[in-house]
Amino acid sequence: MGTTASQLGKDLLSEYQVSAQNAHKRFTELLTKDEKDLPNTRVSMERVLTLPELKSNPFRKRICYVFSTSEQKDGSLTFEDFLDLLSAFSDSATLEIKSHYAFRIFDFDDDGTLDCGDLEKLVNCLTGETDETRLTTEEMRQLINNILEESDIDKDGTVNLSEFQHVISRSPDFVSSFKIVL
Amino acid sequence: RERHRAKRRDGDREKKKRRKGRRRRASRAGEREDELQARHEKREAGRRKRAKNYQESEGRERDEEEQAQIKTGKTAKTKKNIKNEKTRKVEQEEGEAEERNAKGKKKHGSAKKEEKDEDGGKCAAKEKTQEVKKKKHKRKGADTLNSLSPEELEKLKEAVDERKKLIQGLRGKPWSMKKKLVTLRESQEFVEKYEGALGKGKGRKLYAYKVMMAKKWMKFQRDFENFKTACIPWEMKIKEIESHFGSSVASYFIFLRWMYGINMILFGLTFGLVMVPEALMGRPYGSIPRKTVPRAEEASAMDFAVLWDFGGYAQYSVLFYGYYNNQRAIGWLKFRMPLSYFLVGVGTVAYSYMVVIRTMARNANESGVGDDNSFNFSWKTFTSWDYLIGNPETADNKFASITTSFKEAILEEQESRKDDNIHLTRFLRVLANFLVLCCLAGSGYLIYFVVRRSQKFALDGLDTHTWWERNEVNMVMSLLGMFCPMLFDVISALENYHPRVALQWQLGRIFALFLGNLYTFIIALMDEINLKREEEKIVKFNITTWEASLYNSTVSENSTGPPITIQPADVPRGPCWETMVGQEFVRLIISDTMTTYITLLIGDFLRAVLVRFLNYCWCWDLEAGFPSYSEFDVSGNVLGLIFNQGMIWMGAFYAPCLPALNVLRLHVSMYLQCWAVMCCNVPQERVFKASGSNNFYMAMLLVILFLSTLPAIYTIVTIPPSFDCGPFSGKKRMFDVIQETLESDFPAWFSKVFSSASNPGLVLPFILLMVLAIYYLQSTSKSYKEANVELKKKLQTQNEENKKKNKRAALKAQMDLEEARKAASQTADSSQRLYHGKNRRNPPAPVREQGLPATRAPVPRNYHHGNHGAPGYLPGFPRQSEPRMHRVPSLQRH
């Protein structure tokens, strides 16, 4: 136990803007008994998503994929990945960091731009899984057109990172709501 | 190319061989090793021209030095020797080989004398190659001082500055922590090394010291930040609530905490500067009439009912205005009590104004640009999810509210909603407003009526009446505050407004109700003050006759004997209206607090318990159906808090204990409400954002602050203080204490200056100047806003233009391509095709660069997640600094 923490070292932990002890406690709770003795264990996405802080988040899977450094792209997290996640969602992370990660979370197909498909998936995430809250295709089309009208400044049919950051930086409450606290 | 270089070197060696036969062999092994190293080095050097220039000049330097220091230790010599080789290689690459060779040979020769003594050049070679780098860098510091040309110095400085910038901005880079740490270390090492080199010899030590101190300071700052966050009270509680109910409910608790902080400071002021000095250094209880319970009340002064009403001993204590003595200076400190009392009163108000306005300005700054409506849909999509929500129920509500907001926005966008029955809606709205006005007027009249009645009761004496009659005013006010909002809620159903507009109306109405109630209360209080002052006149007259009779009786009985002492409790005294006002406010606060807590317990807790347990044996589903659990009413609670604070500000001058009471109240309600929210409330159906309404509440607080200081200031300025109680007794007006202090405590010239400064001829121009300054600032801010709008327009037109240009360029490129294809098909000339192919790809790129003049340059789209660790190109990070970053570690590894 505790191997992961000792590897990281004290000065490293202070670099993360989160209370690392608490994070470490919560992270080891996700591990099974044998895994606790191994260094650098990965926790599978399913088990990370059992955290109550992430359970009801519609973007939970995307969050795991974005912060995972796994080779297999299975969304599994090491403790360092987990700390990266928490520090990006912490109070002290700057708007630039937050908007960068938000962009990558919203970029469902990982192609570096938000195109119509990404936006549709995003809106579907926001409106929930049930059919009654879902938008009709006509409404969806209208909505996506409006979004692109507003934020696609170079009119190439997609929203890229700088356009996204341009939009986000004007929003009054992005920074206060893009937070996860353990 | 390598081979070519090697050949040249060999040729070089041949020449040397001819001169110095076999000695050469020993060093060759080392040279081989070195060659490999140097080649590697060179590859990087090629990427960075600056570094190359560097090495070159360094090499030259070293050569000269070597000749001078021929007698230094042999190991050092060999190292230098090796370095020479490397230097030469670099120079060869530059194409100035001939000249260098000659120079090198010469040096080499001198070096070889030492090398003769060296036995195992081969064994040492490996070590040497490792040491080479270190040595080189160590020496660089010394060498660069006098060798670098200003141009190179500039370049070096530039590099160091770049690194520094990188270190500073590292926190804002969206990389994984591992990469950040590696970059940080590398850059720090780089900066440390070269910045030391840039300074003079003495400067380097100072620099090292500075670096150390900076590190320590950073560490201290970070620890201090952590300490500060750990010191914020109730942080965990609020975070827990935040994760269950979203940010809007949490914003109430943050507001409550903020209020608590302000009240703590107000409490500190009054407690430390007024109450404690009077209690410690003032005359003790029972020494003078104003500090004693009158004989008539003595019997009941300790009864709980009386104390609960803040009569009896509580009334004649430091808690109220009347207890304070008008002695100018008290105790061995010569503490100016009346002055302190007055200044604390003024300071309380001034501090509150300052804090509220500063917070408002900060909030306005934060959401400064946020009010334009140009990104309505994008914000709804990108920023509407509250990531703090950890409760499935809240999440469901949030889904629903986001969906409705989408639908509403789409509807609004499509067409402004048609109202087919506009007359009915209008009629209903007018009716609703009429009803609300009736409610307001009725509640105002009720309060006025009750206050007048209570005065009658008070004249009769409190003992003859029941509990209800004694506490009628406060109870009526609290009940009105509780039930009228519900009535308004029912009425607002008539109006059929958009929920957000409806909420604003509701808030406005509650605000009007509270304000009306408060002001009726104050007007009634004013009446009472006037009555008391009438009474005071009579008492004053009676006292003079009483004193005269007392004097006469003593004189007539025995003129030589000592004057008889009268118990202070027996002395007749005035009604002291200030204490009365203070008492009223304290009672109001107490009853308000009680009502809040009781509603909380009954309305939330009891209801939750009933719903929860009766649900097992009820005919319909209580949890989902009618009574259900209560929601947390953010706006109502915030309004309650604001009005409570208003009452504190109003009454604090006459009852110094009010801030203390309020601190207590806020402390308790923090815990109680936290508990109530977590245990018996359900998340709101409509989850509102917190930040939008922040400044709305602050503006209300400011209005309340102004309105509550108005009557307090009015009474202080216009009504003369009571003649026999309080710190200002015996003065015509309360603020005379300032003049008195000026006259007696300051030198004569000061009061003269002050009086001439306060003459209208000076004050009026000053006020005029301030008004002009305000006008000027306002007009400049307006013009800035206009400029902002202008710039935005410009941006938009530029975007349009760019779009057009883009299209044109694309079209042209396409045409070119067509042409090229035609040409290619005709002549099958490959070179032309290549040229046009290139041409096709290039034109859009520069246009794209200009795409976002106001924001960052567009980022190529080739990144994807998972390339953190790769040394590839990263967004937001300038490309050219990349190789430099990777060069440093290779130099530093050993």
From TrEMBL, chain A:
SUPFAM superfamilies: EF-hand (SSF47473). One of its GO terms (molecular function) is magnesium ion binding. The keyword Magnesium applies. The keyword Metal-binding applies. Residues 94-129, 139-174 form the EF-hand domain. Keywords: Calcium, Magnesium, Metal-binding, Repeat. Gene3D superfamilies: EF-hand. PROSITE patterns: EF_HAND_1, EF_HAND_2. This is EF-hand domain-containing protein. It comes from Dicentrarchus labrax. The gene is LOC127353961.
UniProtKB/TrEMBL annotation, chain B:
Residues 576-691 form the TMC domain. The chain crosses the membrane at residues 260-281, 301-323, 335-356, 430-451, 472-494, 506-526, 696-717, 757-777. It is a multi-pass membrane protein. GO terms for cellular component: plasma membrane. Residues 824-833 have a biased composition (Polar residues). GO terms for biological process: detection of mechanical stimulus involved in sensory perception of sound; vestibular reflex. Keywords: Membrane, Transmembrane, Transmembrane helix. Residues 1-145, 819-894 are annotated as: Disordered. Residues 28-44, 53-62, 82-102, 111-132 have a biased composition (Basic and acidic residues). It is found in: Membrane. GO terms for molecular function: mechanosensitive monoatomic ion channel activity. Pfam families: TMC. Belongs to the TMC family. This is Transmembrane channel-like protein.
